[in-house]
Amino acid sequence: MNLFINAAGNKPMYEQVKDGIKEAILNGELKAHQLMPSVRQLAADLNVSMITTKRAYSDLENEGLIYTVAGKGTFVKADNIEAVQEKQLNDALEDFREKAENLKKLSVPQEKLIEEIEKIYGGNENE
Amino acid sequence: MNLFINAAGNKPMYEQVKDGIKEAILNGELKAHQLMPSVRQLAADLNVSMITTKRAYSDLENEGLIYTVAGKGTFVKADNIEAVQEKQLNDALEDFREKAENLKKLSVPQEKLIEEIEKIYGGNENE
DNA sequence: TTGCTGTATATAGCTGATATACACAGTATA
DNA sequence: TATACTGTGTATATCAGCTATATACAGCAA
Questions:
Q1: What are the backbone angles phi and psi of residue B33, rounded to the nearest 5°?
Q2: For FRET with B59, which of A1, A73, A95, B39 sits at 20 to 30 Å CA-CA?
Q3: Does the pLDDT of residue A79 top 90, yes or no?
Q4: Strand bridging mode B66-69 / A73-76
Q5: What digits encode the pLDDT tens for the residues A34-53?
Q6: What is the DSSP letter of B64?
Q7: Whether the Cβ atoms of residue A75 and residue A66 lie closer than 8 Å to each other
């Protein structure tokens, strides 16, 4: 799992950590009951505070993707992946619709939007 | 000009005020050198603090859309509308591309995106 | 005990939002 | 003319929430 945190970015760091781990779990890179790096270790690796990694872990635990045993460590749960994936997809679609509606409101023609999509998908199929 | 402010929304209130006024200027509802409502009056109408409306006016002044005369009031400037409109359009397109790329990363097929766009544009052409 | 783990507390900085007091411009009026 | 009044924008001090931190506390196991 290779995380890259941008301290100056628009997204909070704990959220970047969270999203990176979530992605690793959802695509199977991290498997159920696997031991996660400790909050300290991960914090050291990413050059952030323990609290930041702890916050990411807490959020992931609330979403049911990992579980924690005090004194032992944090483990991958990953038994409701489908639900999480579906939510992620729906959120992404909703964001997309919102931006598309915004363009419509600005009188951008439908063809322009489709053209942009073709540019994105046409460029490199496998990335 | 009818503004609706949602205090519980995700967007800051001063930004909602700003966007609403900007839209009114860009679509010609507010014309150049027209007197704007005073920060106090607008604050009372919207049930927000003066500081909030003042912040919106300051931002709009920085964008060159209005100008202020202390003791007299705030007036519509609107002589660089084209540049502002172009920026607005580019920003909206960039947002749209970002969300589309996100969907591609989630393995959503191109056809699904186009389908969503057609739904949005097909629904009601003139809204 | 030692060394790992997660957890709780107190603190600092930034941002959104507010109330209140201040300063400027025009106008009515003495 | 001079002054007071009422409208305008502006500055200061303050509060609440969120992000991020350091540091100290508590649990588990060799």
A1: 70, 5
A2: A95
A3: no
A4: unpaired
A5: 999 999 999 999 999 999 99
A6: T
A7: yes
DSSP B1-54: ------TTSSS-HHHHHHHHHHHHHHTTSS-TTPBPPPHHHHHHHHTS-HHHHH
| pLDDT per residue of chain B (127 residues) written in tens, 0 to 9 | 778 899 888 899 999 999 999 999 998 999 999 999 999 999 999 999 999 999 999 999 999 999 999 889 999 998 889 999 999 999 999 999 999 999 999 999 999 999 999 999 986 555 4
The set of residues, in sequence order, having a beta carbon less than 8 Å from that of A126 and lying 6+ positions away, is none
Q: How many CB atoms lie within 10 A of CB B12?
A: 12
| B99 contacts on A by Cβ (under 8 Å) | 92, 95-96, 98-99
**Nearest-angstrom CA–CA distance, B121 and B127:** 9
Three-state secondary structure of chain A: CCCCCCCCCCCCHHHHHHHHHHHHHHCCCCCCCCECCCHHHHHHHHCCCHHHHHHHHHHHHHCCCEEEECCCEEEECCCCHHHHHHHHHHHHHHHHHHHHHHHHHCCCCHHHHHHHHHHHHHHCCCC
CA A73 – C1' C1 distance (Å)?
A: 21
Question: Which residue type sits at A102?
Answer: N
Contact B100 A117 (CB under 8 A): yes
* CA-based radius of gyration for chain B: 18
Q: Which of residues 43-62 of B touch strand C (CB under 7 A)?
A: 48-52, 55
